[in-house]
Amino acid sequence: MKIAILSRxxxxxxTRRLKEACKQRGxxxxxxxxxRCYMDITSHxxxxxxxxxxxxxxxxxxPRIGASQTFYGTAVVRQFEMMGVFPCNESQAISRSRDKLRxxxxxxxxxxxxxxxxxxxSTKDIAGLIDIVGGAPLVIKLLEGTQxxxxxxxxxxxxxxxxxxxxRGLDANILVQEFIKEAGGADLRxxxxxxxxxxxxxxxxxxxxxxxxxxxGGSAERVKLTPEERTTxxxxxxxxxxxxxxxxxxxxxxxxxxxxxxxxxxxxxxxRATGKDVAGKIVEFIEKNGAHGKTKxxxxx
Length: 301
Prior knowledge:
By secondary structure, the protein is α+β, with helices and mostly antiparallel strands. Helices cover 32% and strands 27% of the residues.
């Protein structure tokens, strides 16, 4: 197969591993900087050009779209779709998962476990918003934040009010969520490919930190998921319409709750923690499911 890996940086671990996995399985893989692509939107003949060359005869694309480049990145993926190229994650599914509020609303409709979450526009409604999640301590999240950036733990009601007022004063959209104290600063990253979990790890926050992101000093280890956790992660990915997803769960007193569904999950942490060939599983999925014109986003919303 001829596969394009849409990534801005060929030196990134995830990008390199995907290319290696493609080559190991006998495929022709090329790394394409999607921001350098430009599109010919012509009736009956959509085209993508890259560095003056038309990208032709690709069987599949693996989108690795950065959060800050979602709009243009998904436009490029969509153009490939118009050309009949199979994407391991479709453009609509990527856009859906990147909108944190929309993601939470869809997961809620599907009956998937979530932390109690509130959203409001006016600073006049702060008191009611805090009450929705059961008061302090609580977590405040920027809708546009990624990798733990823009996530704040407010330990008192006064602190929560001040942070929310400050964010809203900057016209920033935020979510307010209950703080799952019993999680103990740990979360579960479940890597979903197709309709099954191919790897899972437990991430533990560093001392004095409640965010478990590895680049913030957190540690990771292989973990065995419960049947409920496996089902929750798979349902979350399916609700977003994602074939490849990193689903982050917390273990709460009322069962697993979904914190985030990531459409471009990193491979380095989970491959090193679990010893699993996750990149190979992604390529294997493309081999089994990739076919010209085979796009079928069935998720609603």
